[in-house]
Design brief:
The chain is α+β, with helices and mostly antiparallel strands. It is built from 8 helices and 4 strands, in the order ααααβββααααβ. A 4-stranded antiparallel sheet has the order 3-2-1-4.
Length: about 180
């Protein structure tokens, strides 16, 4: 199966032959089906014998395909989707639209929107606490609540969200290892 000509693909630099071959087949299979591709399926597609376990190691190892290469591939290919990353108990999601970071999420408490708002002095701890209580009660987005209450302007929220996304991505460069998965939309 060939790559979809509407989806330009640039092979990341720094791959050895085996990871390069696995990655190429992974992308081709995904683009052909639009569905996640398992290691067993890939082991059957490869021209040489490689176990599903070996393929899983190649597919999900940031030491094999470093973060700069992943981000370069997403950017140069102008991909839209979500990059899911995990290291120990920390999980992050970076959402891309046409190769550009659109938003981010992290389960690390230091990277919550509220922490950025307090750190950058957009809100006080008391204001954040009240807004979080209101959020728990009605399920609205934190930024929307703070804007409704007149505590935060739309521009301040945009600035805080931009900073949050940037710092969430920058922190990834400090990870010595981890796993990733990119889901196209």
């Amino acid at each position: 199966m060939a790559l979809d000509p509407r989806t330009p693909f640039v092979m990341p630099q720094g791959f050895t032959d085996r990871p390069r071959e696995v990655f190429r087949h992974l992308v081709e299979a995904f683009l052909a089906s639009g569905e996640p591709v398992g290691s067993r399926t890939l082991s059957q597609r490869l021209p040489h014998a490689l176990s599903p376990a070996s393929i899983r190691n190649v597919m999900a190892d940031l030491e094999t395909m470093g973060l700069p290469e992943v981000l370069q591939w997403i950017a140069t290919s102008r991909k839209t989707g979500t990059l899911y990353l995990r290291r120990a108990a920390t999980e992050k999601r970076i959402v891309f639209q046409h190769g550009t970071v659109y938003s981010s999420w992290s389960n690390h408490p230091r990277e919550s929107l509220g922490q950025f708002l307090i750190r950058d002095r957009f809100v006080t701890e008391e204001q954040l606490f009240r807004a979080l209580q209101r959020q728990e009660k009605n399920g609205k987005m934190l930024g929307g609540i703070l804007m409704e209450e007149g505590i935060l302007s739309a521009e301040d929220l945009r600035q805080a969200l931009t900073t949050k996304a940037e710092e969430t991505v920058y922190d990834l460069f400090l990870w010595p290892d981890g796993s990733f998965e990119f889901g196209l939309r």
